Amino acid sequence: xxxxxxxxQANTAGAGPRLRRVLRLWDLIFYGMVLIMPIAPxxxxxxxxxxxxxxxVNTILIAMLAMTITAFSYGRMAALYPSAGSAYTYVGRGxxxxxxxxxxxxxxxxxxxIPLINAVWVAETIHGWIHQIPTYALMAVFxxxxxxxxxxxxxxxxxxxxxxxxxxCVVILAFAILAVRYLFHFQGWAGIFSWLPFYDPKTFDFRVxxxxxxxxxxxxxxxxxxxxxxxxxENPKRxxxxxxxxxxxxxxxxxxxxxxxxxxxxPGFHFENVTGAFMDxxxxxxxxxxxxxxTAVTILAAVGSALTGxxxxxxxxxxxxxxxxxxxxxxxxxxxxxxxxxYNIWIIGIIAxxxxxxxAVHGRGYENAAELLNFGAFIAFTGxxxxxxxxxxxxRRAGRHVHLLGDVLLPLFGFAFCGWIWLNLNIVAKIVxxxxxxxxxxxxxxxxNGFRKRPATIDFSEG
Length: 463
Description:
This protein has 463 residues and is mostly helical. The protein is built from 17 helices and two strands. The protein has a single domain (23-462), classed as Up-down Bundle (Amino acid/polyamine transporter I), CATH 1.20.1740. 69% of the residues lie in helices and 1% in strands. The longest helix is centred in the middle third of the chain and has 35 residues, at 288-322.
């Protein structure tokens, strides 16, 4: 869903148009929750539950701590450098332009992966129920449909997004009510309230749980979108910071509650259809209509995310081609009639299909795609945390005292925590992401004459 555009009021004195600050704290929080979506834990549930050996709630809460501290750093940096580039801008302007470019390069990988991860999830989920249809065929249909719609200029409208959000909320609420009813019917209050999702001495192993935290962190991806509205917000220094932190906290609490109820309905961590596990839990708790409703809204959300994400990635590549960051003849091309970046749309579609198939070669395609998405995200998160420490704790801005907790300890802890999560990514994510990042270093060195010139600007507002 596109960012809300604030009204522009002309200055009668002739000083030019100025943005009116019209967004309040709860407007930002609502926008952040829309970006993350209330069903964020649903696609992840089976994969994380299996990876953590039944402790998905713990992984979401551990990830929430890292994300909340990071949100604090994002909120503070947004007050200094309001920009659509967010992490790219914060690191580039607050720390070093070359490091900022590399953070932006890592973020580009995430843009490219959004349609891929949705294609892999939909294909693997449907294949888990209908084994007769090959995964590659389902992925081809999904990617082909998204590519065709983007080439024809078909976009998800704001009204459609709001209707889908409302449906998600209704279905999640229905799940919560029916799950509580199911648990109380078979186990009474002991079924509803239990410590087992958090700790069972027979199965608890922190090393196993630690390995699942990077996957659970995907629940929070998108919270930083709140900071891009900094120029439209009343009292941005206070409200942007509060909104980013509260969005992470609300996401963690609601996500943990959804996962807790699902874990109680299905206490084990073995599933026949891992990516569709949450829907199978809905079938147990509420019957076929809840199964179908949850499946429908989740797949529709995947289609919407892939449609918007692939177009956003294509537009970002177009901006880089137009500005000669990438070869202009290919990436800067626009269709004469439809005004769409056709070559880029085709490139995104090919990456989504071929990349999805390669990540799924040895199984666990969705898991590999999710961790690869987090490769770029956590480079950005660690960069923003360190930049917040550097900007507020080291530079010592004139007229301002350094506060040990907020300016030094919290951002450094966030830097270390996000770095720890990044180090726990699986080997596939590290290899593929490492190759991408190494290519970015080589490309940057070539374009800047051995890092001696100013790097080209990446216009993330295009995406």
